[in-house]
Write a structure and sequence with these properties.
Length: 275
């Protein structure tokens, strides 16, 4: 089974944010952006649809994905009009914006990506429904409920998840975002790929489930981390062996990580088609 045959039917969620460990690892935010871009580029080239739950900040990861899809369309030159990225906006994220600003963002995408506003429980809101809502500051409870609702919707509409980096402080919601997204995937049995070479939340999760050795220095505790103690490498359900998952959890080399992620996706698809 070729990569194109597998990934042409897959929606892959990507979870990333800045990692506090990157300076100590000799890495910068630019390295993280390059890593995400390379992973996304390979998945798009092989026909996968990418799913991201982000905001619309300038120079943010959402903008990077939109640029990659537009470039992929231009380079392909085959008239492909499929939507390469779906960007979910959680309730507390989009309620900060005016409806006209959201409509303008949709128009700028020119069909290359889909921008989806969600209600507090994660159900889709049409733009007409969003127009009837006034922009305002969300409450802390709305941040927690809205982000969790979005993450559950992403789980239901994707086939696998890739996580890398991730801050473990200054987060909204009940726990660090990458932590909650990974935990939801693990509890549901969704294939999960932990790329820990950039440190952060992804690396902490890999350590907790036994894929990498603990840091030499003490680590700050973060809400929800102990929940990962009930999982092992086998819980990742991603088609990779324990050794391959350990490599993915350590490597800062994106080409190596991409090879492992693609290998796992193909194996999972093969197992599903030959039960």
């Amino acid at each position: 089974m070729s990569y194109q045959e597998v990934l042409g039917r897959q929606a892959v969620a990507i979870s990333t944010s800045e990692s506090p460990d990157m300076p100590a690892l000799g890495l910068s935010d630019e390295h993280l952006r390059d890593a995400m871009a390379e992973i996304a580029r390979h998945l798009l080239a092989l026909g996968a649809r990418l799913v991201y739950g982000g905001d619309l900040r300038q120079h943010g990861f959402s903008e990077l994905l939109f640029e990659l899809v537009a470039r992929h369309r231009r380079d392909a030159g085959n008239g492909d009009e499929t939507t390469g990225v779906t960007n979910y906006l959680a309730w507390p994220v989009h309620i900060l914006q005016s409806a006209s600003a959201l409509e303008s963002a949709v128009a700028d995408l020119d069909g290359s990506a889909e921008l989806v506003c969600l209600d507090l429980d994660g159900t889709r809101l049409s733009m007409a429904e969003r127009h009837r809502l006034a922009s305002r500051q969300p409450t802390e409870d709305e941040w927690a409920n809205g982000l969790t609702g979005m993450r559950r919707t992403m789980l239901a509409e994707t086939n696998a998840r890739v996580v890398l980096g991730g801050r473990v402080d200054r987060y909204k919601g009940t726990m660090p975002g990458i932590g909650e997204e990974a935990l939801i995937s693990l509890r549901d049995g969704q294939p999960l790929f932990l790329m820990g070479g950039f440190g952060g939340c992804a690396r902490d999760i890999a350590e907790t489930i036994g894929l990498v050795a603990p840091w030499a220095a003490p680590r700050p505790a973060w809400a929800g981390r102990t929940a990962f103690g009930s999982f092992t490498a086998a819980s990742l359900n991603n088609g990779l062996t324990g050794e391959e998952n350990a490599i993915l959890a350590r490597t800062p080399h994106v080409d190596q990580a991409v090879t492992l992620i693609l290998r796992g996706l193909v194996r999972v698809a093969g197992a599903a088609s030959n039960p």
